[in-house]
Amino acid sequence: MWRMLALSPARVAVAIAWGVAALGSGLGLAALAAWLIARAWQMPPVLDLSVVVVSVRALGISRGLCRYLERLATHDVALRAMTTARTSVYRTLAQSDVWRWRDRAGSSGRHATVAGREMRRGDVLVRIGTDIDDLGAVVVRVLVPVAVAVVLSFAAVGLIAFISPLAAVILAVALGVSGIAAPWLSAMAAREAERAVRADRAEFTAEAVTVLDHAAELRVAGRLDAALAVADKASRRAVAAEDSAASRSAWAAAATPLSIGISALGALLVGIAAYGPTGGLPGGMTPMALAILVLVPLSAFEAVGALPAAATTLTTARAALHRLRDSSVKPSAVGGKPTTIAMPEGRRVVVLGPSGAGKTTLLMAWAGLFDTPRDGVTFFAEDAHLFGTSILENLRVARGDLGLDEAESALRTVGLGPWLDSLPDGVHTSLTAGAAAVSGGQRRRILLARALVAPAHTLLLDEPTEHLAAAEGDQLLRELLDANSGLVAPDRTVVVVTHQLPLGHGADTIVTVDATGTCRVEHPHAVAASAN
Asked: Which residues contact 522 (CB under 8 A, 6 or more apart)?
């Protein structure tokens, strides 16, 4: 976990130091305040109390200040660690070579196989979101609190030992129950429930993403209600598991107030037995010592009181770390991965093959997304995101300096002219709901226009004519594969993934990927020329 978060020992030490200073100020404040209250009862000269009064004020101020600085330092460490972990996971997922389309449990959605197990987009969302957040919480809620609790516990027991060794033993046992036994019980109670919660929550997230992304297709196929039912069941299971975990954790948390009560009562009984000028016990006990003996343990438990919650957080983080390590293992070749070949020669290349054969993976490999991205080569995914901003800004994703006229020209080139004319604000029209604001065909054409305005010399287009009417899709595909059509400049290379080639296409290279991932390269124009 430390290695994945790339924690800086120096920064962690600073955070712990501020935490010790904050709670140490509280412990010192309790001791001095107790002494001051008991000493003031004896009505000594005011000057005898001046130093203690100033110290109490200083500790009261420093406690809040140190707590603020501890929060700054702790969150600085946590946010840096989360950024590092998230970057690592993004990089690993980007280099994964097994992304492909697959149907699972009667729903359509993007899936991947990681370490031999299928992972859907919702699972990826859990890993790059919740799981990394859980890891970051370890710094704030586990690492620093545990270190501070250990230091403060020894300090409190040592302080009480100067007054009464017996009271110190009682405090040490009570702190042990609150700081060791209670967290252990909390972790044990939460572990099994946490596994169920995470599994069901991940299932719900995956199903929810599938429904949100493919509601229209699922409704047409008559499977939307079934997908919603699966998500609802997963949500209910997650809620039930969370309730169970909360109930058991509550019983574990009860150990802390019980320990406080036992410690306070034990200290009081010891103090009563020893109180007096000569005391009921050898050595006696002054009023100031009695007040310190009773009040200091109450402050000492402030540090260990957060440990049961820390144990639960640590349990959650370990489960998250396990999932992240699974997704960080570069998987071996599985079905759906095509045989790696170099990108063939040709200005207009088409990749054919059945769903799941690995056509998209092949394009990503040619773009260098699994190792080093290639200059001048850009991959445009079929499910690329449309942002909730203007049409112009959505095109500027590919080229930031895109002008207004160029944007309009690209949209008209891909057949969106009539639609553009119907919009009151033209290219400045905001797609407030992103992809949901347009039809499937309009979305494909916008994405194609984005590809056309990109500065890359080689365009790798994944299913650019999907969701278009058959005749319109065939015509657009012919234009993409015709170097003289004017849709794409003749000196640029276009690689298109499709399921079926239209008649009269102008592709000079055809790559066929079969179900086993085997690639076959053909050059139809060269064959025709040799035949002539």
From this structure: 509, 510, 511, 512
* Res 194: pLDDT: 61
β-pairing verdict for 377-380 and 348-352: unpaired
State both tokens at 499.
């399921």
Instruction: Name residue, tokens 């389309």.
Output: 101
- Residue positions counted in the chain: 532
pLDDT digits (tens, 9 = 90+) for 399-418: 889 999 999 999 998 889 99
Nearest-angstrom CA–CA distance, 282 and 206: 70
Q: Tell me the pLDDT band of 34, cut-offs 50, 70 and 90.
A: confident
What does the block give as tokens for 22? Answer: 């904050």
Quick check: 440 and 216 in contact, CB under 8 A?
yes
DSSP 351: E
Q: Which amino acid is located at 385 in the chain? A: H
Q: How far is CA 409 from CA 413, 426, 450, in A?
A: 6, 12, 11
Averaged pLDDT, 107-130: 49
Residues 6+ apart with CB under 8 A from 281: 273, 274
Nearest to 31 by CA among 135, 163, 134: 163
Q: Which of 263, 275, 201, 255 is nearest to 233 (CA)?
A: 201
Report DSSP state, residue 175: H
C-alpha angle 252-23-158 in degrees, rounded to nearest 5: 85
Least confident span in 6-10, 92-96, 170-174: 92-96
> Whole-angstrom Cα distance, residue 435 to residue 296?
61
Each residue of 2-14: b (16+ CB within 10 Å) or e?
eebbebeeebbeb
CA distance 412 to 45: 92
> What contacts 295, CB < 8 A, 6 or more positions away?
30, 31, 33, 34
CB atoms within 10 A of CB 47: 7
pLDDT at 98: 38
- Give Cβ neighbours of residue 322 (< 8 Å, ≥ 6 apart): none
The dihedral of CA 279, 266, 166, 306: what is its sign? negative
- Rounded distance between C-alpha atoms, residue 132 and residue 125, angstroms: 10
The secondary structure element, H or E, covering residue 119 is strand 117-120
Higher pLDDT: 174 or 243? It is 174
Q: Would you say 120 and 111 are in contact if contact means Cβ atoms under 8 Å apart? A: yes
pLDDT tens track for 290-304: 888 888 888 888 888
pLDDT above 50: residue 1: yes
Closest CA to 302 of 25, 37, 18, 77: 25
